[in-house]
Design goal:
The complex is a heterodimer. Helix content of chain A is 0%, strand content 50%. Chain A contains no helices and eleven strands. Chain A has strands at residues 4-7, 10-13, 19-25, 31-37, 43-51, 54-57, 64-66, 76-78, 87-94, 103-104, 108-112. In chain A, strands 2, 4, 5, 6, 9, 10 and 11 form a seven-stranded mixed sheet that branches. Chain A has a four-stranded antiparallel sheet with strand order 1-3-8-7, with no helix packed on it. In chain A, a hairpin with an 8-residue loop joins strand 9 (87-94) and strand 10 (103-104). Chain B is built from no helices and twelve strands. Chain B has strands spanning 3-5, 10-14, 19-21, 24-26, 33-39, 46-52, 59-61, 64-69, 74-79, 88-95, 102-104, 108-113. Chain B is mostly beta strands. In chain B, strands 2, 5, 6, 10, 11 and 12 form a six-stranded mixed sheet that branches. At the A-B interface, strand 4, strand 5, strand 9 and strand 10 of A face strand 5, strand 6 and strand 10 of B.
Chain lengths: 113, 114
């Protein structure tokens, strides 16, 4: 089935450690996104990529890094520089010409101990 | 600034009641899209509807309907005869300019009790 797969679903990390969240899509979509969801704050855009080997910062990129080496993959690294990393992370994709219709994965919940 | 406001944090209803979720937006664009997404307990957001600002006709899809009023910058979502499966968090969203970068509201959690 076509869709977006995020892993792991749950992740625990000690302070000071980097962690990478995986996002893979088989929808042949050009654009991919990472959003962060916190209680009461809706979704905020971390990074997005419209095409392979290119990505741009969103509203809250500090403390995060991404890569887009393949069309189907857009991993997110939460670095130790991110001050409040505990959150729910959602990956999404879209066809470039479909403005706003995003397909989401089931999310990864990161807890920093 | 572009902004989406969902003033209702949480709504609880009993099955078969009708419920309306409010969405108010601010935009500098003359033409724009508006969206509703549903987030069930499983976590992934599911696209429900996209409306173009040119089209102010109300839209109905089964038990779902949307009322778009440019004059009040509102794009409200009504569920008729609610069901327990409608329990979810619902987000209204608006793209930043002519892009796919969505600005989301803070969401409304709907709980439908049997």
């Amino acid at each position: 089935d076509g869709g977006i797969t995020q892993s792991p679903k749950y992740l625990f990390r000690k302070e000071g450690q980097n962690v990478t969240l995986s996002c893979e899509q088989n929808l042949n979509h050009d654009a991919m996104y990472w959003y962060r969801q916190d209680p009461g704050q809706g979704l905020r855009l971390i990074y997005y990529s419209q095409i392979v080997n290119d990505f741009q910062k969103g509203d809250i990129a500090e403390g995060y890094s991404v890569s887009r080496e393949k069309k189907e993959s857009f991993p997110l690294t939460v670095t130790s520089a991110q001050k409040n990393p505990t959150a729910f992370y959602l990956c999404a994709s879209s066809m470039r010409e479909q403005t706003g219709e995003l397909f989401f994965g089931e999310g990864s919940r990161l807890t920093v101990l | 600034a572009q902004k989406v406001t969902q003033a209702q944090t949480e709504i609880s209803v009993v099955e078969k009641e009708d419920v309306t979720l409010d969405c108010v937006y601010e935009t500098r664009d003359t033409t724009y899209y508006l969206f509703w997404y549903k987030q069930p307990p499983s976590g992934e957001l599911v696209f429900l509807i996209r409306r173009n600002s040119f089209d102010e006709q109300n839209e109905i899809s089964g038990r779902y309907s949307w009322n778009f009023q440019k004059s009040t910058s509102s794009f409200n979502f009504t569920i008729t005869a609610s069901q327990v499966v409608d329990s979810a968090v619902y987000f209204c969203a608006h793209p930043r300019g002519n892009t796919d970068k969505l600005i989301f509201g803070t969401g409304t959690r709907l709980q439908v009790f049997p």
